[in-house]
Structures are given as C-alpha cells and as structure tokens.
C-alpha cells in the first residue's frame, strides 16, 4: 500500500493497494493531497482529505470513509488508538525573517502537535526551542528559499506509545530527535547538527566517531528498544566527491542513553542508479528483512533486502507519460507499507 504523488499532469493522486505481483487490489482518489497514508488497524487507513486538509479514515474493504476535523500537518503523522488522537508535523512561522540575496523571507520551523478528532490541540513540542534559526548553518545546507526559509523540513515521525516518546526526522539538519511526551523535553539529538539539544556521539560500523550516519533522511522508525531504522537519501553529503549525488539506502543504529551514544549496527546501500535525493521509506518486516522505496523519476523502485544485504524481492514501477495508467504509476513511492489480509499463523491440529 502506498500513496502516489503527482501521478498525472492534473495532479490526480491516489491511495493504492496492490498485491505482490503489482496488480491493483483497491484505490482511493486523493486529488492532490497524497503522501500521508497509514494502516491503523486490520481494516482502516488514515489519509488526508483533498478539500479540507484534515484526516480521513478509509475502510479498505468497504470503501466507507469517515471525515475528522484533525489537521494533517505535513509529511508524516501517527495515530493513538487509545486516545483517538493524531500527532502531526506542523509548520510554524514564529522565527522572524531573514534577508537572503536582498529579499526578506519568513523562517519556517516545525512543531510536533497532537490533535483530537474534533481538531482540538492536545499537546505541542516547539521545534525552534531546540533548533533556533542559524543563518550560517542554513547556508551550509545549500538549500534555497522557495517562498520561505525551510529551516528544518521535518519529514518522518514515530510515536512510541509504550515508552511515551516521539522520534522526529529533521531532513535539512541531518538529524533525528527524541522527545519525551510527558515532559515535552528534547531527550537527545542524533546527527550532524544538534542545535540547543543534548547531542549523541555517533559511531559507524567500524567503531569510528563520525559527525553523522545519514544525510537528508526520511522515515524514522523504532524497530526494537533503543534501535532505530531510517531511509538515508544521502543528499548533500559533503564527504562525497559530489554532494548532490550520494548512495541512498537503509541505516540502523542503537542508542545508549546512559553513554549518550548512537552506534550504527546495520546498513544497506543500494546500487548507485537507485539514488533518490528526496522522499523514500524504510520499514523492518516481521521476517527481519527491510522494505524500502526509492523515489526515482519516472520509475520508483521498491526493494526488500535481507540482513545479509541480498535483494530478495523487488518491484520496479513501469515508467509512464502520466496518462496511460489509471493510478499513474511512475512518479513517487513515499510511505510504502506491506500487510497481510489474514494472520500468518498456521494451526497444528495434530498437536496434543
């Protein structure tokens, strides 16, 4: 299951479910507001309503929908089935302005905000308290001002309901942030730029201390206690001969909060031709393999690899001219997930 993105010249985007052979099982029209798509139970997905920008619940078997008043934010969101609330990444403009090349631009940062179904704010973490705008740091990232200064560009969110923590991927600062839900405090920052947050010391697979393990990441996910997985676009990696062309892949690391360290424990780098400078996803499967999506244009690639780094399954989208497929394959696969229609459980009726 995945959202398409800009899948036609009219931006007709869809939430799409396909089988393992690429056959369409179901799809739901999203107009031009795709990107957020998550299965929250065995029958229901939430995504963004194209008109209101609020979350919509979609039963993937009956195609019934339920509209909420909860704002969607951008890029990613999480759902708490106990409180029936959403946490979202929300752009805020309370950082003043910056004069860049003679023009004044608003400085945009990101908050994590929790909303109930009626759209009432329940909780908020303010990103600019940990990451106040730093003009010199922004210039180092080779970003441009497209209407405003996109200081953080957070793009991945994971809510650990058991521990009461949230994890945020901040693309433009090359870091991951852990936030304590109860206190609202930043617990640590893992990556190249920590701002005012408590910084973890990072080590690569060889045990060498490094500034960061990833560059312009997406899709952070907690896969075991203190163990995180993410998609590393590897864009603007200044250790590469050309920082605009990296080698995308999946990165796993373990955090020791007592020692304040983050240690790389597994990495897979895709073939160079899979390089995706934006978007992407990575998820750990129950069998221990990792499933990810590389946002190539005009033909994204979805790849499953095992712990040995071998590709065990792959789906290469068919390139199109936007108009020759109902669901517009060929432009983006961001936020992909795999699920079973029935539990993978075998009963041994002969057991005593």
Key structural traits:
6-stranded mixed sheet, 3% helix, 2 helices, 44% strand, 352 residues, 27 strands, mainly beta, Lipocalin
Annotate the secondary structure layout.
Elements lengths: L1 E2 L9 E6 L5 E8 L5 E3 L4 E5 L5 E6 L5 E7 L5 E4 L4 E8 L4 E4 L2 E14 L4 E6 H4 L4 H6 L8 E2 L3 E7 L4 E6 L4 E6 L5 E6 L9 E3 L5 E2 L6 E8 L2 E6 L16 E8 L4 E9 L11 E4 L5 E5 L6 E5 L5 E6 L36
Parallel strand pairs: 11-13, 18-23
Antiparallel strand pairs: 1-2, 2-3, 4-5, 5-6, 6-7, 8-9, 9-11, 10-11, 11-12, 14-15, 15-16, 16-17, 18-19, 20-21, 21-22, 22-23, 24-25, 25-26, 26-27
Explained architecture:
- The protein has 352 residues and is mostly beta strands.
- It has 2 domains: 1-39 and 279-341, no CATH class; 73-277, Lipocalin (Beta Barrel), CATH 2.40.128.630.
- Helices cover 3% and strands 44% of the residues.
- The chain has helices spanning 127-130, 135-140, and strands spanning 2-3, 13-18, 24-31, 37-39, 44-48, 54-59, 65-71, 77-80, 85-92, 97-100, 103-116, 121-126, 149-150, 154-160, 165-170, 175-180, 186-191, 201-203, 209-210, 217-224, 227-232, 249-256, 261-269, 281-284, 290-294, 301-305, 311-316.
- The strands form 6 sheets. Strands 8, 9, 10, 11, 12 and 13 form a 6-stranded mixed sheet that branches.
- Strand 26 (301-305) and strand 27 form a beta hairpin.
- The chain is globular and about 65 Å long.
